[in-house]
Design goal:
The chain has 599 residues and is α+β, with helices and mostly antiparallel strands. It has helices at residues 3-12, 16-27, 54-69, 75-87, 92-100, 107-120, 124-137, 143-149, 156-166, 168-179, 186-194, 197-206, 216-226, 228-233, 239-252, 268-277, 286-301, 313-325, 343-361, 395-399, 408-413, 435-438, 479-491, 498-512, 515-518, 572-585; strands spanning 369-374, 385-390, 393-394, 424-430, 440-448, 451-458, 475-478, 522-529, 536-543, 559-566, 593-597. The strands form three sheets. The chain has a four-stranded antiparallel sheet with strand order 4-5-6-7. A hairpin with a 2-residue loop joins strand 5 and strand 6 (451-458). Helix 3 packs antiparallel against helix 4, helix 11 (186-194) runs antiparallel to helix 12 (197-206) and helix 17 (286-301) crosses helix 19 (343-361). The longest helix has 19 residues, at 343-361. The chain is globular, with a radius of gyration of 28 Å.
């Protein structure tokens, strides 16, 4: 087909919007298939590339669309945009990104063009441009078109993202319908989509909400689509519903995903208020205490702290949780678990006791810096993280938001935050995936006279929401206050447990004296507890030939080893000493597991 013939094909095709409406009308209540409709096959003028990227792609989009989007709202303009996009050598993802940052001199004209593109566009690329503009400029009258186009597989994510700003509940319904297929969740999703409020309440009460079944995004979609605040207000107080609402809030604040979903939940403040003010209706059990304390941990120093609270509201809710958990009725929950209790129960009770002490009773340190080693409910396998507050604000969620603060082993045990006259870059947090994928938060720490300075911040330019990340100034701390707070946080190991303490003691000894490993051409990487089996200490180390002679080849062959030491009831200090003694006597490569390396 010639280029001219392809242009005729583009302009003679029905719009994607008309295609969706026709399919919906034809299928009636049956609705679209799972995942949505596949867009009709499209002709392409692009061939196989080459594709423009980065700044060149953005410049090409501006040149192709800037004038047209500000032009008259006519079929001829829409046809010209269709042709320009068909010939533009930019993939759809970078194209949408460029449109989202496109300067718009005439907003009303751009909005009119967006609506025409969405309703008359014949290709996924053309409609995607209209959706990207409506993500910025959409109004309530655009909801029907966005909802219809969310049923096209290649447009669903962008259409629902645009819909979220205008109708969060409808957007959540579309997300649940398209994104959730797990059989454990589907009955609740179908109840929300097709049932009554009574059905939703009944199914929600029966729904397991542990982290292996419901992630942070799904928790938000369930809360939005089910109208969680309305369910809590309807009828007498139901302790079972309160507990489930609390679990959904805990899930939403999890740092395991690319962004804190709690900050995107419009009902977060209201539902926190409803759950916490009525929490006295809950039975004093370990599970309920864990839910309430996890909420408190995030109110204290997590992303929940950043919600738009009324003055004093957050502090009052924290006080309410603290008063309830310290009341006589709940004191039995804090009783130390006996030696015959399962190790998971012993860890959970120890977490409850330590964390309540830090969140509710620990004095505020003097100065601008506060360091807290905290985690949420260990039954969920949540990471123990080093939380840093600067002037009372949680640093990692506020300026990075893509994961938790790094572990205390990485930041405190290894002495990374110790300030010297030699500047040192410290990585405070990694993205939940990895630094190479979504970045990290790093800062340079240096001692200057009687001050410690954090400067030269490095982090992604934008938050997960797409908003620009805050520009951080150099922070100056009184050196004495800084050293005192760092020493307090480093010396407080009440958050640890036997297997983790064993790993940390091994790591500390090998950092102070690396020779036992080095004699086998090995170097320590990390020592802690196994993330999947908390009752097992783990030592990670690399084998690099030449390490003992002090000349390891940076690009030479290497192997990664893991040595696991299950907790056998031996005191951590004794267990760590025995492990170090074995490393000195026997080559650890002989009894550790090889877990990767160079080819």
């Amino acid at each position: 087909m010639s280029a001219a013939d392809e242009r005729v094909a583009l302009t003679s095709r029905p719009s994607l919007y008309a295609f969706v409406l026709d399919r919906l009308a034809a299928e009636g209540d049956g609705g679209p298939p799972a995942g949505g409709y596949a867009a009709p096959e499209e002709p392409s003028l692009l061939g196989t590339g080459p594709w423009l990227r980065g700044g060149k792609a953005a410049a090409a989009v501006r040149a192709a669309l800037g004038r047209l989007l500000a032009g008259p709202d006519t079929p001829a303009t829409a046809e010209a945009i269709d042709r320009s996009l068909a010939e533009l050598p930019v993939r759809t993802g970078p194209l949408v990104g460029a449109v989202l940052s496109l300067p718009l001199d005439d907003v009303p004209a751009a909005r009119r063009s967006a609506r025409r593109l969405v309703r008359t566009g014949t290709t996924v690329r053309t409609v995607s441009v209209g959706l990207a503009l409506l993500l910025r400029l959409g109004e309530p009258e655009d909801v029907p078109a966005l909802e219809a186009l969310s049923r096209v597989r290649d447009l669903s994510d962008l259409a629902v993202t645009a819909l979220e700003r205008l109708d969060p509940r409808l957007a959540a319904l579309r997300r649940l319908d398209v994104r959730v297929s797990r059989p454990e969740l589907r009955p609740l999703v179908d109840g929300i989509l097709y049932g009554t409020a009574r059905d939703v309440r009944r199914l929600l009460l029966r729904q397991p909400l542990d982290v292996r079944i419901v992630n942070a995004s799904q928790a938000r979609w369930i809360a939005e689509a089910a109208g969680l605040g309305g369910l809590l207000r309807r009828g007498p107080v139901d302790p079972r519903l309160l507990a489930q609402a609390g679990r959904l809030l805990v899930r939403m604040a999890s740092p395991r995903e690319e962004r804190a979903e709690i900050l995107r939940y419009g009902g977060a403040v209201d539902v926190h208020e409803l759950v916490i003010r009525r929490a006295c209706a809950l039975r004093p059990t370990l599970d309920h205490a864990a839910v309430l304390l996890s909420l408190a941990v995030d109110l204290h120093s997590g992303p929940t702290r950043m919600l738009p609270w009324r003055e004093g509201q957050r502090e009052q809710l924290l006080d309410a949780i603290g008063a309830l958990l310290s009341s006589t009725a709940w004191e039995g929950v804090y009783a130390e678990a006996g030696a015959d209790a399962p190790s998971a129960v012993r860890r959970r009770v120890a977490w409850l006791r330590y964390t309540a002490g830090r969140v509710f009773r620990a004095p505020e340190p003097p100065g601008r810096l506060r360091i807290e080693v905290l985690s949420r409910d260990p039954a969920d396998g949540e990471q123990v993280e080093t939380r840093i507050l600067l002037d009372g604000r949680p640093l990692v969620p506020e300026v990075f938001g893509r994961g938790a603060g790094n572990t205390p082993e990485d930041l405190l045990d290894a002495g990374c935050l110790v300030a010297t006259e030699e500047p040192r870059e410290v990585r405070l947090a990694d993205a939940w995936c990895c630094e190479g994928c979504c970045g990290a938060l790093s800062v340079t720490v240096v001692r200057e006279g009687d001050e410690v300075v954090w400067r030269d911040w490095r982090h992604p330019a934008r938050l997960p929401s797409g908003d620009p990340a805050p520009e951080l100034p150099a922070y100056r701390f009184d050196a004495a206050a800084y050293d005192a707070e760092l020493a307090r946080a480093t010396g407080d190991d009440g958050w640890s447990w036997p297997a983790r303490t064993t790993g940390r003691l091994i790591g500390a000894a090998l950092r102070e004296r690396p020779e036992p490993l080095a004699r086998w051409d090995c170097v320590l990487v990390h020592a802690s507890a196994d993330g999947r089996d908390p009752d097992t200490a783990v030592l990670w180390f690399h084998y690099r030939p030449g390490t003992f002679e002090g000349e390891p080849a940076e690009k030479g062959p290497w192997l990664h080893f893991v040595w696991r030491l299950p907790d056998d009831g031996t005191p951590p200090a004794v267990r760590a000493a025995a492990a170090l003694h074995r490393i000195e006597r026997e080559d650890p490569r002989a009894y550790a597991e090889c877990a990767g390396g160079s080819r």
